[in-house]
From TrEMBL:
Gene Ontology CC annotation, any one: extracellular region
Keyword Magnesium: no
Active-site annotation: H321, C339
UniProt-recorded name of the protein: L,D-TPase catalytic domain-containing protein
Organism encoding this protein: Micromonospora globispora
Amino acid sequence: MHVRRRFALFAVTIAATPLVLVGCTADKNPAAKAGHGKHAAANPTVAVTPVDRTKDVPISAEVGAKVGGGKITAVRLTDDKGEQVPAEPREDGSSWVPTRPLKNSRTYTAEVTAAGNSGRTTTQKTTFTTAAKSTKPAITSVLYFRGDQTYGTAMPVTVAFDPPIPKAARADVQRRLFVKTDPPQPGAWSWIEDGSQVYYRAPDFWKPGTKISVRTGLEGLPIGKNAVGDVDHTATGKVGRQVSLDIDNATKQMSVYRDGKLLRRIPVSLGKPSTPSSSGKMVIMEKFDRTTFDTRGDPNGGYVVDVDDAQRLTWGGEFIHSAPWSEGEQGNTNVSHGCANVSATAANWLMGITQVGDLVTVKGTEVQLQPGNGWTAWNVTWDEFVKGSALPVPAGLQPTPSATPHPGAVAGGGSSPAPAPSASGG
């Protein structure tokens, strides 16, 4: 099946770049020297990055610190007007990440204080200047996760890129993507092969009631030598009730489950042999009370039709939707252009049951779902999913023979909005 990439839905733009603080260094100030004599071992050493008087620092800068003989007790970052810049530490304590991008062509001062075992402290100060606004092209990216929305338990945090991110840059991009869950439920990022999408999910489905907070701290970050990130966004949503749809081509029936209990079976008509539906695990991506399918220009299309109660499953144009014209075939014959046709009454009922992020499993059709044709994070096992990470997967999340969920803390590793998709289906 030919997949046409479409960026839109509830779009939030973002972009990408490396973690490391880089720039043209005018001078390097060594870490504060330890004390002398009998107190030498008691004074911790602190080395801060960016080093003092560094210029042309990206506005995505983090304050890094290495401490010898002690631990960090305080970090303070201020701008050239004396205003403090809020920042949060990474889980491993390697750096402090400002909660918003810095401003171009401004000077900032970072002060890091560390205490030794004896209680003696050392404070290291560094001043750096950010770069002017970049003239390099920005990579357009979309975060498919909106704040203040309730999602299904299979909702993957999805970031899409145009153009795709090359393999050499994916680790740097991934370091700047952060996810937190409450209650904690750890997960990992995984890239599809062409680098056009990256997904974040846990080994098992999200628990109902979970709050998911996402930050894409990517504005101003260089991507290789020729591109830069466009924007930086945050969003917090929550997980609703557990709903799943199972569609079996052998029986031409859809089984609708909520919290593991069967609610209803619905007759369906899937794609005819010349335009088969995809088999695999999909996620409801968006919902329309009414939309227009325009397939003119598609290899097997050429029609325009208005449809009611449509729910997108793939970028290629597969939907669940009302199809009163095929109610005589539903439950016995496949006549659609790839969509799951249901009756008008059933489609309306489904719209009140489902959520964006609910799992839809289709089995027994002539073709398999292609990676990236929709949010396909659940179409592979956890063992296969984590192979797509550009960074090492934490020990607690590495595949195990039982593949059981592992509870614990979660950490993440001037835009042109992406064009809206033209709805197609049948």
